[in-house]
Amino acid sequence: MIYENKDQLKSGYAQIIQTDGGDVRILDEAKLRDELIDALIYTVVFSPDPATKDAACWLIRRTAAALGILSASIQPLYEAMGRGEVKGFTVPAINLRAITYDSAQAVFRAAIKGQVGPVIFEIARSEIDYTLQRPLEYTCAVTAAAIKTGYSGPIFLQGDHFQVNAKKFADDPAKEIQAVKNLIWEAIEAGFYNIDLDTSTLVDLTKTTVKEQQETNYLLAAELTTMIRDLEPEGISISVGGEIGEVGGKNSTVEELQAFMEGYLESLTNGDQPPVPISKISVQTGTTHGGVPLADGSVAEVKIDFEVLEKLSELARTRHGLAGAVQHGASTLPDEAFDRFPAVGTAEIHLATGFQNIVYDSPSFPPQLKERIYEYLKKEFKGEWKEKDTEEQFLYKTRKKGCGSFKLEMWNLPAPVIQQLGAELEKQLSFLFGKLKVNSTSEITRKYVQPVDVNLELPSALKG
User: Worst-scoring range by mean pLDDT, 32-41, 133-142, 344-353?
Assistant: First the structure.
């Protein structure tokens, strides 16, 4: 059900929750989870009335707060990892592109079952555009999924690859930087208290010294970090990540990490009270986002340099107090690779395309819908079809762009299909949580992370 106006909305929740100023009181928790939360999130995503959407969003977030579900920064846990007090696991950061509400439920079910503490839900700047999910919508979908599954505790929302586009930066630096700043502001307002900056696109390998190569990268990373500190809500230290090497490019080195951190910390200095620096550093060790598709559409095997990853993680912790290095583009790796990440001290691992592949490649996914999506891609993105690519390669690379254009159809798949997709996602998530050693970490997370309840202004549709 979708509420099309504020009167329908108020009538729909009247006997289930009650608003009281800036808070929500729950009258019927069973009906909230069985009925109302579905209607609220579908209203946020699909209602034609912006005021009703805003009101439904507020209700989701404040209802979650009443249940002990609060958006949080992972910063205190990462600081403990940097001090060596916490170790032995790698935090999964999961990008949800398709059927986000139901996919997030699979994440929470697997997390509850494994007593998993740190799981990050993230979305990249590019994904926001092609999945048609603004940060606030993403926040609501993940938060609603937490309510639906009975989860309680902190949820970690992250802006992934808040990236400076090198071409746009070359054309108009001020305009491109402002676009990233605007997105950061929007994300923090939506409850994203973890932000991964990516100015590594501006590394210039033609420069003579490593520090000169990293200069624009660390200067902008410092500028954006300072901005984030100015915007963060009272009582919250947002976890900020930096990046020294673009994923898919050349492998990162110890010298690059040192040069970046040296220049970054120098640039961050602001009198006696410099802003809190980054908590982790993303590096390149041999992966590519989404993997490299072969002519038949399968994914080529990737060789990760775990020795470099271990050295960079160790240096990041011991010399700079960071949680460690972050591995991107890992979801399409072979299953046997994942237990290596905690073994070498990797702080965080980003997982995206593998979950999208489960949805598209599931035997339960309607073949007629998949065919419609593929025909749309071949027509609308024909210009991206490289001459050397087979049709299978082209579709593998571009089908992520079907997630937004066909969002309504995907969210409204028949219940048995949604259940089957959810079961497949949950199975893979449980496997990954075990490999990454995050099972039985909920108590550790709660020890270090105490979420702050940030006040949200009551929407006009709910006033009176």
Answer: 344-353
CA angle 35, 117, 152 (to 5 degrees): 30
| Tokens 């050349």 belong to residue | 250
Distances (CA, A) of 418 to 289, 316, 367: 26, 41, 14
Tell whether 463 is covered by a domain.
no
What are the backbone dihedrals phi and psi of residue 153, each rounded to the nearest 5 degrees, phi first?
Answer: 135, -170
440 in a structural domain: yes
Q: Quote the pLDDT of residue 301.
A: 58
Residue pair 150/168 in contact by the 8 Å Cβ criterion: no
Instruction: Give the domain range for residue 274.
Output: 84-359+416-448
Give the ranges where 321-386 is alpha helix by DSSP (H).
340-343, 353-361, 367-380
pLDDT at 227 over 70: yes
Surface-to-core class of residue 168, CB atoms within 10 Å of its CB (0-12 exposed, 13-18 middle, 19+ buried): middle
Note whether 184 and 249 are same-domain residues: yes
Comparing 301 with 86, the larger pLDDT belongs to 86
Q: What is the pLDDT of residue 298?
A: 52
- Beta-carbon contacts of residue 152 (< 8 Å; ≥ 6 apart): 67, 68, 69, 146
Phi/psi for 192 (5° steps) reads -80, 100
- For residue 272, the model assigns a pLDDT of 67
Q: Do 3 and 9 contact (CB within 8 A), yes or no?
A: yes
d(CA 171, CA 383): 22
Regarding predicted confidence, which is higher, 262 or 269?
262
pLDDT (tens digit per residue) in 371-398: 999 999 999 999 999 989 999 989 999 9
Q: Quick check: 196 and 241 in contact, CB under 8 A?
A: yes
What's the total number of domains in the chain? 3
Residues 379 and 263 in one domain: no
